[in-house]
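Handout, section B. The chain below has 398 residues.
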Amino acid sequence: MTNYPFCHGNPRTPVKLTPNSGSPSTWQWTPYHEARYCKPDASGPCFVGPEAPSSYGQNAPCPFGGVTANNFDLAYYPFVFALSDGTLYSPSSPYGATGGSQLQGRKLRPAFTDWQTAPTPPIPGGAAVMFGKDRIMLAGGTTVSCGEGCGVHNPNQVPSKKAYVIEMSQSSPEWVAKADMHNARVHFYLIGLPDGNILSVGGTRAAPATPEPEYIPDCYVPNGVLEPELYNPSSNVWTELAPMGTPRQYHSTVLLLPDGSVIAAGGQLVDPYGAAWEQNNQWTYQIYKPPYFFQGLRPVINDAPESTPYNDTFVVDVSTLASSITAVRLIRPGSVTHSVDFDQRVLDLQFATSTGYEIRVAAPPNANEAPPGYYLLFVCTGTNGSLPSEGRFIRIGA
């Protein structure tokens, strides 16, 4: 890697991963030139921010082909969603826009040929989740975009309660306002649950009066939001739930587990009573059990295939009469950082029931709708699939 630093996270130098059939330890990372949005081999573009080695000049070409640099900034850790039409949509990032850039949604067209403007969310930053086919929620965030150099410790941050949803499969998609959350939040997560609802977890609600000697509002213990909230898309209602014992704020992690519970872990805290406002990494985690753990006997997947190709049908054997199944859902396992789960998507599958205990399920039609890989399969009973089974791993696109 002569002349190229190995960069991750904030340095934002583009890199290309070339996997092979051997151990992942032998896979190769190749840094790019300054071109910001280059297409990795067979896996789409590598979304990064604006900085790269300056010696290559502005808008240098991608040395390996793909999409050349553009005069806009997706900021740190951009929200990126693969849509069913083969495009990639990036509405914002946890930081809104940086460097004084105008907040603007972007869409990368099929075959990754060029960029176009796309619907821009009404709020900068926040947390995002895809919870249906091309259906995305963005919530929380701040009332101002964080300028380049202010990091995430901007004293002008005013966390928001707002929530918006967009249906990108519509002919003219727009961000639609939904009910406000009970708590304003920034540095939190939205998690799609197998009952079809969305869980809002963690975050910080406000910046304190300027403390001394160090100002880190997003890690300040008294600002932590302990109460998770559950959003029901059918009723457009947020419900506050049992509080956490420890705040989960900046650099925390929240993930859905196979049994349908949610783990909240890590994060950084600033002890307001500690010497010099010492910032501490947390080494603890908490497990949250959503309401469906306590609403009666959950269905069980007795048998299901380990894999299925696209556009096929597979059989699932369940513990309850097939006629009682009201929803079958796929949820892609998580890959989270900075208020977004880049992999998670919730997909409702079509299915047919029998007179016994088997259901026939239609696999996703193609890789655009469900990128290949492992998913958690859930079968659900109750209204709108409100009582899910534990998840069963299944490989899609085998």
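Note. The first strand starts at residue 15 and ends at 18. Compare this with the example in section A.
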